[in-house]
């Protein structure tokens, strides 16, 4: 049976939402959601995971250990055919070591963006950008050592511009 473009997009959305619920529920049955040829591509600090075993061992379980009582908040979904993307955040309690910082018990927000390709009803590829710099800042560590461009926004520093460009 051939699905319409809209039906395929909705089926893709359902795959992603089931997987997100499973992550939030601390499910250990992730094979139901991820393709046997699954790949996870993260930004700097997150790493790249080839296969479900690597994803679980080097992302899902360390995140679960570092942040308990997690809730997932997807703010916007965009689905087209077998592709989906979203942005949102995870709220969690810093209950275990994260990036060398021992547990603080502090509630943090972990901003993210995800892009997925679904094949055969399961996630085959996942490109991720997780804002670990924001999480670290919430825990008192400025990875930019005061040089982040937010300092321009709040007037603490003046940005450089090319000499030939006038504002």
Q: What is the radius of gyration computed over CA atoms, rounded to a whole number of angstroms?
A: 19 Å
Which residue ranges are poorly predicted, with pLDDT under 50 across at least 5 consecutive positions? none
User: What is the terminal separation in angstroms?
Assistant: 57 Å
State the CATH architecture. Answer: Roll
Average pLDDT, rounded to a whole number, is 94
Strand order of the largest sheet: 2-1-6-5-4-3
- The CATH C-level class name: Alpha Beta
Brief synopsis:
By secondary structure, the protein is α+β, with helices and mostly antiparallel strands. It has helices at residues 5-24, 52-66, 132-138, 150-153, and strands at 34-42, 48-50, 67-80, 83-94, 107-119, 122-130.
Walkthrough of the structure:
This protein is 28% helix and 36% strand. With 167 residues, it is an alpha+beta fold. 17% of the residues are buried. It has a single domain, classed as Nuclear Transport Factor 2, Chain: A. The radius of gyration is 19 Å and the shape is globular. It has a six-stranded mixed beta sheet with strand order 2-1-6-5-4-3. The protein is built from four helices and six strands; from the N terminus they run H-E-E-H-E-E-E-E-H-H. It starts with a helix and ends in a 14-residue tail after the last helix. The chain has helices at residues 5-24, 52-66, 132-138, 150-153, and strands at residues 34-42, 48-50, 67-80, 83-94, 107-119, 122-130. The mean pLDDT is 94.
Observed structural traits:
4 helices; 6-stranded mixed β-sheet; Nuclear Transport Factor 2, Chain: A; 167 residues; globular; 36% strand; single chain; 6 strands
